[in-house]
Write a structure and sequence with these properties.
By secondary structure, this protein is mostly helical. It has one domain. It has 16 helices and two strands. A hairpin with a 2-residue loop joins strand 1 and strand 2. The protein is globular, with a radius of gyration of 22 Å. The chain starts with a helix and ends in a 6-residue tail after the last helix.
């Protein structure tokens, strides 16, 4: 009996690892190609510049990322409750590496390698979803993955040690495994959801509700259980998280409330551009398609330094591209309106829309939060292609349009990436600092 039990546990672990990591030749080759694409940029930035980890400047060198602050502390406990526990082992590894080779540049390099691995594995999970959940053919799945690979969010997070880098991987994993469980007619256990809630909500607390969304779609019939089961499971999972959160804050719930309120008031007063421009460029478009950039003079105590920020879109093609992306997402839902898995994706996305667009939290730098939601774009696009596969003319038209959009995205984002590198070379080369 013990042997059987041991074999069952071993099989479950093996199955879990097959879900988490590349499990066939195509997935392995895809992961390798992604690493070859992303890693050289991170290596160059780590070994030749101080932009990834700057000993003097804790935040806002580029696009409002808080690299040094996150590396040293995990960020504010109110927003990132357990991030410090996740980042500390990586920090200790990075310290060991740079002390071993006696070169501080390898401290940044350790984080950069992990970032590239996180983003690459997250994209492989998106490919798994397209192939195993939606059942798309390999060709269209790879085209969607190429499109997604060159998102501005993925490019930036491939070398940026931030909470969003871990979050995009964790959410991609949870979306895939929950879809896998539901598509097999099974239920997500409270234990697993609680563990994922600790990881996902622990990185950024506003993402905690996303771990509850699949509960709503476990029951096929609408009855009392349809409403009671998800509520009970969500409450149990939330209670576990809240208890750990309070423990993290020494049970001082008033401190959590006061600091959280203060943070909301501080970051919910948009400045500069119109609401529509910020929603279109900063929240939605900027997470996919780079706009142009602007340099700003910043100061941290007595240290004066340059920071790089997004500007609002300035031409019709950019707005058209963003409109088409949104149209693909909406059409993916409408065309599969009887499919519960598309609703999970849209509800997850709408949570971010509510927080950043309507509650206006961090709206003027909301391109930061792309790691919380951009993975729904390729997935809903995949569902759209799935719905159109019987209509050959429509399918081919969509394929052609999507191919053109992919080429435009790649050209635009590589061009803007070159602008970013010019900024880095001008101010943050090691020889210049």
């Amino acid at each position: 009996m013990t042997k059987l039990g041991g074999e069952t546990i071993k099989n479950k672990i093996f199955s879990f690892l097959k879900i988490l990591f590349p499990s066939n030749k195509t997935e392995s080759v895809l992961f390798l190609i992604l690493m070859i694409l992303y890693l050289p940029l991170g290596i160059w930035l780590s070994l030749n510049t101080t932009v990834i980890y700057n000993k003097k400047i804790p935040w806002d060198i580029y696009f409002s990322f808080d690299n040094r602050s996150i590396i040293l502390s995990g960020g504010m406990i109110e927003k990132h409750p357990f991030s410090e526990f996740f980042i500390t082992p990586v920090y200790n590894l990075a310290v060991w590496v740079y002390q071993t080779v006696d070169d501080f540049r390898f401290f940044s390099l350790t984080f950069t390698v992990l970032c590239a691995v996180n983003v690459s594995l997250g994209i492989v999970l998106i490919y798994k979803y397209l192939r195993n959940i939606i059942k798309l053919e390999t060709g269209i799945s790879l085209l969607i993955v190429v499109f997604y690979t060159f998102f501005s969010t993925n490019i930036l997070l491939s070398f940026t040690p931030e909470t969003y880098t871990f979050t995009i991987f964790l959410l991609s994993f949870y979306v895939y495994i929950s879809a896998l469980i539901l598509s097999q007619g099974k239920r997500i256990s409270v234990f697993f959801a609680s563990i994922m809630g600790i990881f996902i909500g622990g990185e950024t607390i506003t993402n905690l509700p996303k771990t509850f969304i699949p509960f709503l779609f476990e029951n096929k019939k609408i009855n009392v259980k349809y409403f009671v089961n998800p509520i009970v499971k969500a409450l149990v999972s939330a209670a576990i998280f809240i208890l750990l959160y309070l423990w993290r804050r020494d049970w001082d719930y008033m401190k959590i409330i006061v600091k959280s309120t203060s943070q909301y008031e501080k970051f919910s007063n948009p400045k500069g551009d119109t609401w529509l421009d910020m929603v279109t460029t900063y929240f939605f478009g900027g997470s996919v398609l780079f706009p142009s950039f602007i340099e700003r003079n910043l100061r941290f105590f007595k240290i004066h330094y340059k920071g790089l920020y997004f500007q609002v879109y300035d031409n019709f093609v950019q707005y058209l591209f963003v409109f088409l992306i949104f149209a693909f997402m909406l059409a993916g839902l409408v065309a599969n309106r009887k499919n519960k898995l598309t609703y999970i994706l849209w509800i997850s996305f709408l949570l971010d829309v509510i927080i950043h667009c309507f509650m206006k939290f961090g709206l003027w730098t909301s391109y930061l939060y792309g790691g919380h939601w951009v993975f729904v774009v390729p997935l809903l696009t995949g569902w759209l292609f799935f719905a159109c596969k019987e209509n050959k003319m429509l399918y081919r038209s969509l394929y052609l349009l999507f191919s053109v959009m992919t080429v435009y995205l790649i050209v635009n984002n590589l061009y803007r990436l070159a602008d970013f590198l010019d900024f880095v070379k001008a101010y943050y080369l090691i020889s210049n600092t």
